[in-house]
Amino acid sequence: MAGDDVVVVYSEERARMLSQGRKKKLEKDKVRKKINEEKMEDEPENSEEEPVKRVELPIIVKADVQGTVQAVTDALRSLNSPQVFVNIVHVGVGPIGQSDIDMAQACGACIVGFNIRNPPSAISLACNQAKIKICLHRVIYHLLEEIGKLIVEKAPGTSETQVAGEAEVLSIFELKGRSKSKGPDVKIAGCRITDGRFTKSATMRLLRSGEVVFEGSCASLKREKQDVEAVGKGSDCGLVIQDCDDFRVGDIIQCLERVVRKPKFITSESGAVRIEC
């Protein structure tokens, strides 16, 4: 084909070996491609997790010289995370002035001052009145540490589903509806909590042979015939899942809870800092 490399060999045996080698490589590439495609198909799209919401942290940078301004700007941008975007809205050389305050107030920015003198009392008062945060530092590590904590505080976090508890269905009971006003028959799963804890406000997932059979809200949680809000590991309980009547002995029920995971600000002994989501 046009554009392909042409290899010249001096014996038929060498040509045959080269051809076989290329054929094996093509076969390996095909297998590798197929495995990668299957991996992508098997990987869950994680529909249980909400899309990550990214918020902005606008910053004004002031420093003693232009070189320091650039170094501080680059260091701050390295703290960008999937949840928080560090937006350097303005940079400048010299002390913090009224124009910096006006700009910070207009765009909701904090002001970073590196290796510059403290602002005069009038400027500090104006910042306090406008509720503008000023971060003054002479050590880059300390600056990044303070901004990193701001990022963690500002980050919305990601909401995800976690398995809070697991139970095994040991028996099944049926509560007969004595009249239309009492509703239809209700299936109750007699369970033993094998791990974690179950809460009445959580969502329940019914598993059979490792496959999800049903998922729904908890309609009733009882222990020793008494309504309870939670049941811990090792306890027996009666469980009703809303609109579910397909329990079988040996089924596994998982208690699902929504949690918000916030990013972490991590420092190392070498002085490096990073945001881990």
- Classified in CATH, the superfamily of the largest domain is Translation initiation factor IF- 2, domain 3
Report the order of strands and helices: HEHEHEHEHEEEEEEEEEE
Oligomer: single chain
What is the makeup of the main sheet? Answer: 6 strands, antiparallel, barrel
- Alpha-carbon distance between the two ends: 47 Å
Share of residues in helices: 25-40%
Determine and state the CATH class of the largest domain. Answer: Alpha Beta
Number of E-type strands:
14
Choose one word for the global shape.
flat
Q: Based on the structure given, which CATH architecture of the largest domain is correct?
A: 3-Layer(aba) Sandwich
Number of domains: 2
Strand content: 35-45%
What structural class do helix, strand and pairing data support? alpha+beta
Classify the fold: give the CATH topology of the largest domain: Rossmann fold
Which parts are unreliable, with pLDDT below 50 for 5 consecutive residues or more?
A: 1-7, 38-49
Mean pLDDT: 81
If helices are DSSP runs of H or I spanning 4 or more residues, what is the number of helices? Answer: 5
* Biggest β-sheet: strands ordered side by side in the sheet: 5-6-11-8-7-12
- Gyration radius from CA atoms, angstroms: 31 Å
